[in-house]
Amino acid sequence: MRSLKTAALLAVAALTLTACGSGDGGDAASDGKVKLRFSYWGSDSRQKMTEQAIAAFEKKNPTIDVVGEFSDWQSYYESLATKVAAGDAPDVMTLEIRGLAEYAGRGALTDLAGKVNTADLDQSILPAGQVDGKQYAIPTGVNVFAMLASKSILDKAGQELPDDKTWTWDDYIKLSAKISEAGKGEYYGTEYTSNNPAYLTIFAAQRGEKFYDNGKIGLTPDTLKAWWANFTNLIETKGSPDASKMNEIIAAGQEQSLIATNKGAFGMWWSNQLGAMVKSSGQEDLSLLRLPKTADAQSGGLFLQPAMHWTISSKTEHPAEAQKFVDFLLNDPEAGGILLSDRGLPINSKVLAAIKDKLPPADQKSLAFIDSVKSELTPVIVPPKGGSKMEDIIKRYTEAVTAGQQTPDEAATKFLEEANAAISG
Amino acid sequence: MVDSLSLKKPVVTAPAPQNGSRQAVNRSRRETLAAYTFLAPWFVGLFLITIGPIVASFYLSFTDYSLLEEAKWVGLENYTHLFTENPRFWTSLKVTGIYVLVSVPLQLGFALGLALMLDRGLRGLSFYRSIYYLPSLLGGSVAIAILWRKIFGADGLINGLLALFGIQGTSYVNDPDTALGTLVLLHVWTFGAPMVIFLAGLRQIPSSYYEAAAMDGAGVIQQFKSITLPLLTPIIFFNLVLEVIKSFQSFTQSFIVSNGSGGPNDSTLFYTLYLYTKGFKDYEMGYASAMAWVLVVIIAGLTGVNFLASKYWVFYGDSK
């Protein structure tokens, strides 16, 4: 009796032990299909669309079984890095431009040149997926960082929509202050963004400087100080909420922004966020404007930003199938028809032509905006390895300056020191 | 076991005790085996999930490990960089140090005060005890951290109250001058766990001491100073050691309240949060491992100091 019990217990223990080791069933699925793992992040609606696209691909390629590995944005890179570290990288990975050099520079990605058909893609945007001259990634679609303006708030404050071809940062700050004054705490002139490197990139480009220049930070202390002056001027003239309230709004994310909650006339966002902003604010008449310029600007500084990148792991056991899948996502009108502009406006001219009429009004608007600024664009720069730290560094020093804890002079020196160290490693 | 069994048995024939002791040996061996069998799943967990990673992190702390590539041996570089070239390391130590130094005494003070009040034979003691204990269960949770962000936000509860008096407050969690203060408050709020331990300690003090003291004319304050406090020092010490270690390892509060940034401007950059950022966001897992080991040394050192100092103020009833 007793020994029977012991035997039973041992059996249970043995089962527990072996259960720990049976996680990896291997890549070859039992039904003879090739299993392809595909990782991406996003909202629930994106997951639904992506699953639809995967189903369409599997229908065309019955021998391939694509498994979507979906997570939210907050934890995406953490789980992806852990998978790669465990030698368990997904075959097809979605990255964005800041993660590109981190992965490509460490040998985690395959060079896609000649392997995926890029003939119909916008050739001018392909360099955004290149690191050291190799095409490690292909943009899923593009955005422009723009100023969103709410017509209804401007009307309420008795102000006109500014002419975005001529307005300067000064004009913007003064106009914002006037709107805040009219708003009496109910609405503000503008919100600012301290955590998007695009703002600083564009501001620097207007002064003829590149954020990253030959492996170094190409910004001068004067540019940084002038940039921070935009923040402090807005706070002082009350064109924006005060610094701690702005920190709160920024931390709360897009849906709690002044534009989305209909409490501000201006805010800087990516063009593909227009649709979401229209939806949450209930304002159909949000417009996209060029960012203001410095008085003697050499260019508008706007650039086409890849919304995301498709990449293939260098360790994949099924390169041919992975390439086929990426090819489908980029070039197949059926995929384009399902995904629409969710990952930026498609860069495949044929796909774009096929789906143009299907796009919702907000996307039509951002498409028209991108077309209108196309001739003034600056080339996009791929951040080097370590560039993914930049967002945090910019945010931190901006917080220090806006809270008055550091003078702009002091912050500029320390910023350049830390930012240069971040990309030198 | 074997001896006592064979002693009790009357010696009748020679083989009998032999047989008996063999049975006993068999049984004890079987019991040992059963014990290990029951423990087996925990051993697997202990080695795979606890000891394995600890050993691995010690090795990794001497490497440059990005997670994406193989670890490269760099010797002491992580440690020297940490101490000589990284101002944020010192910032995070300062932030954590202030947090521990301020919040632990405040929390223990509150806990002791309330324990004393509850110990005075309040009606419905167990109800109050549960109510006050509740925050300790919830305090480290994500939900409470989110709630905190709301309470101390620009349009939060605090400012709502202040508005009644015509005062316009700011967003306390997003102002570098006040952000850490809100986290200290959150920690103090979780005084329930040490309070329950204090209550148990108070119950251990014989009431005859107080009766004798009262007879000699000692007042409440005198009784507290001469009886309660000295006899409670072992409990205070226990709570102190525990809370210092716990608060040094605080992570969730800062991670959620500051949205993972330790901001604004690093004002809530807890050591563990910085460690996490280094490992998972900056692709510097080797560096993060080194930070973890520095934390181990710091906590061990602090606990050691605590134990040494305890000789001078902790009173165990049996010592001379």
Query: Order of helices and strands of chain A, N to C?
Result: HEHEHEHEEEEHHEHEEHHEHEEEHHHHHH
* Count of strand segments of chain A: 14
How many strand segments of chain B? 2
Give Rg of chain B in angstroms.
Answer: 27 Å
Name the CATH superfamily assignment of the largest domain in chain B: MetI-like
CATH topology of the largest domain in chain A: D-Maltodextrin-Binding Protein, domain 2
Named CATH architecture of the largest domain in chain A: 3-Layer(aba) Sandwich
Strand count, sense and barrel status of the largest sheet of chain B are: 2 strands, antiparallel
Helix vs. strand class of chain B: mainly alpha
Q: Mind telling me the CATH superfamily name of the largest domain in chain A?
A: Periplasmic binding protein-like II
**Percent in strands of chain B:** under 5%
How do the strands line up in the largest sheet of chain A? 2-1-3-14-6
**Helical coverage of chain A, percent range:** 40-55%
**Beta-strand residue percentage of chain A:** 5-15%
Arithmetic mean of pLDDT of chain B: 87
- Give the CATH level 1 class of the largest domain in chain B: Mainly Alpha
- Helical stretch tally of chain A: 16
Chain-wise SSE layout:
The complex is a heterodimer of chains A (about 425) and B (about 325).
Chain A: H1 2-21, E1 34-41, H2 44-60, E2 64-71, H3 73-85, E3 92-95, H4 97-104, E4 130-131, E5 134-135, E6 138-139, E7 142-150, H5 151-156, H6 169-183, E8 188-190, H7 197-206, E9 212-213, E10 216-217, H8 221-236, H9 243-252, E11 264-270, H10 274-281, E12 286-289, E13 304-306, E14 309-312, H11 319-331, H12 333-339, H13 349-355, H14 361-373, H15 390-402, H16 408-424
Parallel strand pairs in A: 1-2, 1-3, 8-11
Antiparallel strand pairs in A: 3-14, 4-5, 6-14, 7-11, 7-12, 7-13, 9-10
Helix pairs in contact in A: 2-12, 8-16, 12-13, 15-16
Chain B: H1 2-8, H2 15-60, E1 63-64, E2 72-73, H3 77-84, H4 87-118, H5 125-138, H6 142-151, H7 157-164, H8 179-189, H9 192-204, H10 207-215, H11 220-248, H12 252-257, H13 271-281, H14 285-313
Antiparallel strand pairs in B: 1-2
